[in-house]
Sequence to fold (171 residues):
Amino acid sequence: MKYKFAIISTIVAVIIILAAYAFVTSSSAAETVAIGDNVSIYYSGSFTNGTVFNSNFGGTPFNFTVGANQVIPGFDNAVIGMKLNQNKTVTIPMNEAYGPINPNLIVRVPIKDLNNQSVKAGMLLTETTTTGQSLQGRVLSVNSTNATIDFNAPLAGYTLVFTIKVLRISK
Fold:
């Protein structure tokens, strides 16, 4: 009788341990970011010299679907595997961010072709292509006949550093 009780007690203990293990692993999987999850995060983005270019810490959380091409590839990859309430700092090389500067996107435009005749260096202009696509560019320089405009993404050519905190994960 002692042996039957010991065997039953051992079986019950093993079942309890397995159930607890299954609960812990399923709970942690539910709280780990995976492709297709909708996440809410805080982030701070900076250049490698420490200059912050954007942050939402303490503000409105940023929401996106992981793997849906809603953010730069390096950012998507950085959040995969993060856990709920985890903080992480990652360095994203330019080829996983906005890419290198494309010299073909720096163009000289006759001032007469621009809607705004008082164009000045540093201005942001929005131009519509012949296909109807809207492009935003920064005026680099202006002379009496032409404006040189950079249509690259403002963060193109930079390695970026992000601090990320996962606030919510929805499967």
